[in-house]
Amino acid sequence: MRRIRLAHQTDFSGWRDAARQGLLAGSAPEALDWRVEGEDAPDLFAAEDHAAAPIPGAEAPRVPRAFIGLAETVILHRDPGRFALLYRLLWGIQRQPRLLEDASHPDVHLAEQVARAIRRDIHKMHAFVRFREIATPEGEPHFVAWFEPDNFIVEAAAPFFVRRFTGMRWTILTPDRAAAWDGEHLTFAEGARREQAPTSDRVEALWRAYYANIFNPARLKLAAMTREMPKRYWKNLPEAELIGPLTRRATEREDAMVKAGPTRPPAFAAAEARRRPAPAEPVDSGTRPGSLGEAREAAQSCRRCGLWEHATQTVFGEGPERARLMLVGEQPGDREDLAGAPFVGPAGRMLDRALEEAAIPRGEVYVTNAVKHFKFEPRGKFRLHKTPDAPEIAACRWWLESERALVRPELIVALGASAAQALLGKRVIIGRERGQLMSLPDGGRLWITVHPSYLLRLPDEAAKAREYDRFIADLGAAWRLLQGAAQT
Ligand code: URA
Description:
By secondary structure, the protein is an alpha/beta fold. It has helices at 12-24, 65-74, 82-95, 106-128, 154-164, 204-214, 222-228, 240-248, 250-260, 269-275, 292-299, 334-339, 346-357, 390-407, 417-424, 430-433, 452-457, 461-487; strands spanning 2-6, 32-36, 132-134, 142-146, 170-173, 177-181, 186-190, 325-329, 365-369, 376-379, 382-385, 411-415, 437-439, 445-449. The site of uracil has 13 residues, from helix 13.
């Protein structure tokens, strides 16, 4: 058995070079022993590490882009078997090029599971890091957080904090690695001990007061909360000590809220829309807009179908003008109709979470809908979502096409049946078409998956978790396709 030493736990380039050498030398997976420098357990049977000679005339190994994306994620796991798992996969791919598409293959399945665990770990780190301010000799504020991720994800998770807290100077300490941002540079250092991190600061009381105020007892779902915020993270969350007392008093407070009744009637959009005078002239002239700003403005007075009449406003797409990825939903919901922005309500939160777990920065994605007005049915105080019909989808396609022409995304992900119908011009069965690259009649590239609301509607928790994972896998695969395209 030949021992391979990697320089550190996430040494992807070291692994890649060794794997390449192994393949060229024809070394079977069981002939290699993968170790990280400094962690060797004595092994009398392992040969010293020397490069194996390539077999004369050996062909260059086949390394699909999808494998690279997967491997870069899997290598962040703590399991020492991950290096061997990746090599087995790569070895298998040489013999079966489409191996990764075989979800029932035990190694493919395991690698997907591991990648999901990593994405979840990164998501939890993004959600549960809490900075505390410390005094510095220069008098400038510096923020320090302590966090214990399950895996070696600090490098992968850190860019999110740079984007979110660009103007702050901060350090995140973990047992394996530390990340620091000085306002200009992101650097990494060895891990730290918990005692090196502050345990409280002057804004903590404020943060706790804020949490206690936003806590809504009527929306308490304890099982969902502990699933989202597992207890092992609580020790680093200043608000966690309030959870017990607040949840114990939740029923009492909820009863009081019901008794008190609403303080003012909700301002419903239908009534608003009736009060608002219609624009004198539909500004939408049928000429293709020259910019997204122009398109957004023209769409405000769209009369291409009847949905404008009861909706509060047109909800146009949002995102960078040159986004490589476009996500298309169905239509704005109640929240989106009031806010004037797509995916800001419950489905939007689900989408945000999934994007984050799939490591897709929402800020780099153009997000829009097949239909730009909220279609609903008033029911008492509520406005119940109604699926847009084929003529409404067809009427609104003009706007979607305008957005596509302006943004020119390299890939479009249709979220659900209405979006797919808008793009393909025909009805599709999501279960049959999802998760594969399709061509649009005009040559665009399309990837279909479910709508996040579908996940919200599933009654059974197990199915919900399973479908959520599939949703993330679909999004991640679409994103990897784009990353792959960038490398060619
Ligand atoms: N559902 C959608 O399809 N789009 C939104 O913007 C919100 C919910």
